[in-house]
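Structure first, sequence second, as always.
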């Protein structure tokens, strides 16, 4: 082009607010802090064990003594809460270790609350790690028996509350689970123990690494008769609404990254605090790409977590919790 063309000069210049870091900080709309994070931890019945999970580098199956060390570090980083998953010494048809007074989770909760009393301890409430068939409740005619599961859920949450859990997080997608749990806790005097419901949980391939970590893969079939179809969004609002009515204190959407639209919709539809679970497959993809030098891990992690918050989550369950808290302190 030889001659210069006249173009209108902009009057409005959004770049003014991007010019330097101080102004960018001032107009930033979403802030991620360590206080937004919940760190998931896997506790094993084995003694003095710290076994790295191959598909989740940096995450471990921990015996109780190592778990305590991890919880202290987590607390020191400003992360207010953990969620515990158990690897029991035995599995059976009902998943009975999950509601035994001396089950792995019950022992772990007692030990953590004893060593770090001001850590907020959430327990994952499910059966898939504890049943020999790997499904999320006892079976009848080859599928999970919803109402029989509710009775066992009631026993499980009461045993967690007796051990000192601050909050229980049912993840099995059984109909009526929040109501059954609220009524069992209240009947036993645990009116202060809260419920974080995995209200909107999809039947997702992103849970693959977790099932290795927690040894909880179903031995036959899949979880599509209880977890949600990834194609459905209106159904998410229905599930969320039911759990509000049944008495949940907080709701969760899971997974997070392929479901940012769902986080946004649930955020708009309810007034309860909303959590999102940045699940194992989401973690594994970032770790694998970073290990190959293909992405800048620190920037990617903060960008992903910020996107989950921007979509509408108040808190994020994430295996990146410790790393993110460290980056945020820099
Ligand atoms: C147990 C449970 C699962 C996860 C959390 N609780 C596995 C599943 O539903 O198969 C997945 C967490 C993750 O992938 O990080 N029901």
């Amino acid at each position: 082009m030889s001659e210069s063309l006249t173009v209108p000069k902009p009057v409005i210049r959004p770049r003014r607010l991007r010019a330097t870091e101080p102004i960018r900080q001032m107009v930033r709309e979403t802030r991620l802090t360590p206080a937004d994070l919940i760190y998931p931890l896997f506790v094993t019945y084995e003694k003095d064990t710290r076994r790295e999970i191959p598909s989740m580098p940096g995450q471990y199956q921990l015996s109780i003594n190592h778990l305590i060390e991890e919880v202290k570090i987590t607390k020191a980083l400003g992360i207010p809460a953990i969620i515990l998953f158990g690897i029991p010494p035995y599995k059976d048809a009902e998943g009975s270790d999950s509601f035994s007074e001396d089950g792995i989770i019950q022992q772990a909760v007692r030990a953590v609350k004893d060593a770090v009393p001001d850590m907020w301890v959430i327990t994952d409430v499910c059966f898939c790690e504890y049943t020999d068939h790997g499904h999320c409740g006892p079976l009848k005619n080859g599928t999970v028996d919803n109402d029989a599961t509710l009775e066992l859920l009631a026993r499980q949450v009461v045993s967690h509350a007796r051990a000192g859990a601050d909050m229980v997080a049912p993840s099995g997608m059984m109909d009526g689970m929040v109501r059954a749990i609220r009524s069992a806790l209240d009947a036993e005097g645990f009116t202060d123990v809260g419920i974080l419901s995995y209200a909107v949980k999809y039947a997702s391939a992103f849970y693959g690494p977790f099932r290795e970590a927690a040894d909880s893969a179903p031995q036959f079939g899949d979880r599509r008769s209880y977890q949600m179809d990834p194609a459905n969004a209106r159904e998410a609002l229905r599930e969320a609404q039911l759990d509000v009515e049944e008495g949940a204190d907080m709701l969760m959407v899971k997974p997070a990254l392929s479901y940012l639209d769902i986080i946004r919709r649930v955020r708009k539809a309810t007034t309860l605090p909303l959590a999102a679970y940045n699940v194992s497959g989401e973690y594994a993809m970032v770790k694998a790409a970073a290990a190959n030098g293909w992405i800048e891990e620190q920037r990617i992690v903060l960008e992903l977590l910020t996107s989950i918050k921007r979509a509408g989550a108040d808190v994020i369950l994430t295996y990146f919790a410790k790393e993110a808290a460290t980056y945020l302190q820099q």
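Margin note: Residues 124, 126, 128, 136, 171-172, 207, 210-211, 216, 223, 279-280 surround PBG (CB under 6 Å).
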